[in-house]
Amino acid sequence: MKSLRRALLLTLLAIAAVSCGEKSDSPLSPTPPAPGAAVYFTAIGASDAAGVGSSAPCVPFTDCPNGMGYVPRIVRDLQGQGSTVTLSNLGIPAAVLSQRFQTLGQQYGRTIPANFIEQEMPFVPRDSTVVTIFAGANDVNTISAAVGGGAGGSDPVAYIDQQIRAFGEDYTTLLQGIRARATSARIVVINLPNMAAMPFASGYSLERRQLLQKASVGINSQVINPLAGQGIPIVDLQCDGRYVDPSYLSSDGFHPNDGGYAALAADVVRAIQTAGYPAPSSSCSLTTVVPPR
User: Fold this and answer.
1) Band of the pLDDT at 282, cuts 50, 70, 90?
2) Residue 278 reports pLDDT greater than 50
3) What does the H/E/C string look like for 103-154?
4) What's residue 236's pLDDT?
5) Which of 134, 136, 189, 206 has its C-alpha lying 20 to 30 A from 264's C-alpha?
6) CA atoms within 13 A on the CB side of 55
7) Residue-by-residue DSSP string for 159-227
8) pLDDT in tens, 199-234
9) β-strands 39-44, 234-235 pairing
């Protein structure tokens, strides 16, 4: 009888150990903060996090309560619902995801001062309860510049596939680093619009737009959107026509304007607050605005 009880105890301990291991290894996003709860909000991003393109952009790493970008708007929206909000805006304009994309861009004449993994992730406060990530647009432009400079040789499609896989590896590193620092944070991720549909690319050749589409849609389908299956809310810009509509974008055709940032802030707040936030669309007309290569 004692041996049976001992065997049962060991079995239960083993099950508990496996269960705990699954929780610690998974980037599952915790449940939304309670209404009116204090929110410790950290934003990881690039020029979007600083509100570039809005009527009131913010100087990085400064208090900017009246900014018109999506980050200060999120703060004001949450405060308007009764929460006290402590913000750490780590966004650095022109930053890319990782050192490998920073180096790649610099090889092809792009000015890239920082990357998320080395200059943002290590500074995520450990008491963060919400972390937003908006990554990939500068990386797609970096990949496009590299292909335009001859990277990939006669097979640019295979080269882009390789870069998408590299982006996925580095995105996993970013998520793991955030989770290691802010173990209780609800992580909300923003995917990319199809960059071939954005006004800044309207004058590009068909070939270049095809490459932008392959890279941005590929990053969404292979790297970002699958995170919804792990419980991470994904704000879906890819299948929302507002985010490629000139009326929602600044004069550069790339960054949102005040209206675009207001829409993005509202979408992110819903993702922060909604348990079971809907997964992004698996396909839509906006994924193929130009014929694929």
Assistant:
1) confident
2) yes
3) HHHHHCCCCCCCEHHHHCHHHCCCCCCEEEEECCHHHHHHHHHHHHCCCCCC
4) 98
5) 206
6) 7
7) HHHHHHHHHHHHHHHHHHHHHHH-TT-EEEEE----GGGSGGGTTS-HHHHHHHHHHHHHHIIIIIGGG
8) 999 999 999 999 999 999 999 999 999 999 999 999
9) unpaired
Tokens 């929302």 found at? 240
30-287 placed in CATH 3.40.50.1110:
yes
Minimal CA–CA distance to 194: which of 171, 173, 211, 179?
Answer: 211
Residue type, 262: A
Alpha-carbon distance values, 144 to 49, 209, 215, 289 (Å): 22, 9, 8, 17
Which DSSP string corresponds to 10-39? HHHHHHHHHHHHHHHH--PPPPPPPTT--E
Ramachandran region of residue 100, left (φ > 0), alpha (ψ -120 to 50) or beta?
A: alpha
Order of strands, sheet of 234-235, starting from the edge strand that comes earlier in the sequence: 85-89, 39-44, 130-134, 186-190, 234-235
- pTM confidence score: 0.90
- Residue whose tokens read 């600044």: 250
Q: Is 99 helix (H, G, I), strand (E, B) or coil?
A: helix
Domain ranges of the chain: 30-287
User: Would you state the structure tokens that stand for residue 111, as one six-digit string?
Assistant: 């000015």
Q: How far apart are CA 98 and CA 27, in angstroms?
A: 19
Q: Give the burial class of 132: count Cβ atoms within 10 A of its Cβ; 0-12 exposed, 13-18 middle, 19 or more buried.
A: buried
Task: Check if the beta carbon of residue 257 is closer than 8 Å to that of residue 54.
Answer: yes
Contacts of 207 (CB under 8 A, 6+ apart): 293
